[in-house]
UniProtKB/TrEMBL annotation, chain A:
<protein>
    <submittedName>
        <fullName>Uncharacterized protein</fullName>
    </submittedName>
</protein>
<feature type="transmembrane region" description="Helical">
    <location>
        <begin position="123"/>
        <end position="141"/>
    </location>
</feature>
<keyword id="KW-1133">Transmembrane helix</keyword>
<keyword id="KW-0472">Membrane</keyword>
<feature type="transmembrane region" description="Helical">
    <location>
        <begin position="20"/>
        <end position="41"/>
    </location>
</feature>
<feature type="transmembrane region" description="Helical">
    <location>
        <begin position="92"/>
        <end position="111"/>
    </location>
</feature>
<keyword id="KW-0812">Transmembrane</keyword>
<feature type="transmembrane region" description="Helical">
    <location>
        <begin position="53"/>
        <end position="71"/>
    </location>
</feature>
TrEMBL record, chain B:
<dbReference type="GO" id="GO:0003677">
    <property type="term" value="F:DNA binding"/>
</dbReference>
<protein>
    <submittedName>
        <fullName>Putative transcriptional regulator</fullName>
    </submittedName>
</protein>
<dbReference type="Pfam" id="PF01381">
    <property type="entry name" value="HTH_3"/>
</dbReference>
<dbReference type="InterPro" id="IPR001387">
    <property type="entry name" value="Cro/C1-type_HTH"/>
</dbReference>
<feature type="domain" description="HTH cro/C1-type">
    <location>
        <begin position="5"/>
        <end position="59"/>
    </location>
</feature>
<keyword id="KW-0238">DNA-binding</keyword>
<dbReference type="InterPro" id="IPR010982">
    <property type="entry name" value="Lambda_DNA-bd_dom_sf"/>
</dbReference>
Length: 157, 66
């Protein structure tokens, strides 16, 4: 039967492994690359580099790694796994919205208790928010899948 | 919603694995459906009822509050 709604094409299962590698070695590699660029003088303004470029340096490997984990198939991909994935994205968006809205409240309460002036906290901008979304989504998906597999194992005992 | 999948599977002397294979889904999906932790799509419900020679209404039963 032909699907009426277009489906998001997922990457093959092996991309999960690539995602993990990007997460593990991405930040050190980006840091080394940045140091190399600085040492050969391709980036003149050191101070500017560490304030403006530090976010992409840290967040790009995180975002790419988590995106590969989120958008690659499971070993046994079927309609329930797809359903869990959609549910995970909904939950991820929900927690991101709640988290971003609540963050200023919590940080300002702490600031006020410490006697400091109020201010807007920084979550790392667009890349930080994207990392959080992908992180929440992946964690929720893994937890739900784990619960379902646990129920199957319990049934076998 | 409750279902008679476990009963019908037993009547046909089928394991969860065999049913999963016949429907092209994983065993964890069959287990989750039997335990009412996951509601199958219309397509899967139809395939399942065809396999057991029943109607969808005979396999899946609506409960009060559904």
């Amino acid at each position: 039967m032909k699907e009426v709604l277009p489906q998001v094409k997922l990457l093959p299962y092996r991309y999960k492994r690539y995602g993990l590698w990007v997460l593990i070695i991405g930040i050190p590699v980006m840091a080394l690359l940045s140091m190399a660029l600085l040492s050969v003088g391709l980036i003149a303004d050191r101070q500017n580099f560490f304030t403006e470029w530090s976010y992409p340096m840290v967040y790009y490997p995180i975002v790419i790694g988590l995106a590969l984990l989120n958008f690659s198939e499971e070993k046994e991909e079927d309609e329930m796994v797809q359903h869990l994935r959609y549910q995970a994205f909904m939950t991820g968006v929900y927690y991101l919205i709640v988290g971003i809205l609540m963050l200023p409240l919590f940080t300002n309460v702490i600031r006020l208790l410490e006697g400091k002036a109020m201010g807007m906290p920084d979550v790392g901008g667009m890349l930080g928010a994207l990392s959080l979304l992908l992180f929440y989504t992946y964690i929720y998906f893994r937890i739900r899948l784990h619960q379902i597999r646990k129920a199957l194992e319990a049934d076998e005992e | 919603m409750k279902n008679n999948i476990k009963v019908e599977r037993a009547k046909k002397d089928m394991t969860q694995e065999q049913l999963a294979e016949a429907l092209c889904v994983s065993r964890q999906t069959i287990n989750a459906i039997e335990k009412n932790k996951y509601l199958p799509s219309t397509l899967l419900a139809l395939k399942m009822s065809n396999l057991f020679g029943l109607t969808v209404n005979e396999l899946f039963i609506l409960e009060e509050g559904d």
